[in-house]
Amino acid sequence: MSQFDDISGMETLRARIDALDAALIALFAQRRALIDRAARIKAGSDLPARIDWRVEQVVANARRHAADAGLDPELFENIWRQLVEAAIAQEDRHLRGDRP
To answer: What is the pLDDT of residue 2?
Structure first.
C-alpha cells in the first residue's frame, strides 16, 4: 500500500505531480541562491568555482540519498553532475563579474 493509493483519478494525480514539480523548482531556486552566496564567499576567499573534492562529495551524497530513497543512484549521479556543472558555471560567471 502506497501513500498515494487514495488518489483515484488521473486529473487528481496530475495535479499532485504538477504541485510537486513546482515545489522542486522552488527548492532549485533556493539552491541557486545558495550557489550565488557561495560565489560571493569564494570571491572574498580567493577560491575557484570548481573544487574537485567538493564536486565528488556532492555527487556521492546524491547517490547515497537516492539509494536510501529506493531510487537509481546512477541516474541521480548523472542528474547531480549536470546540476553541479551548472552551479560551477554560475559561480564562474559571478567570479568573472558577469551577471546573467
So the answer is: 82
CB 54 within 8 A of CB 41: no
Buried b / exposed e over 67-79, threshold 16 CB at 10 Å, is: eeeeeebeebeee
Q: pTM of the predicted model, to two decimals? A: 0.86
Residue pair 59/79 in contact (Cβ under 8 Å)? The answer is: no
Q: Please report the domains of the chain, with CATH numbers, ordered by start residue.
A: 10-96 (1.20.59.10)
Distances (CA, A) of 25 to 19, 20, 29, 72, 85: 10, 9, 6, 21, 18
Q: pLDDT band for 1, please (50, 70, 90 cuts).
A: low
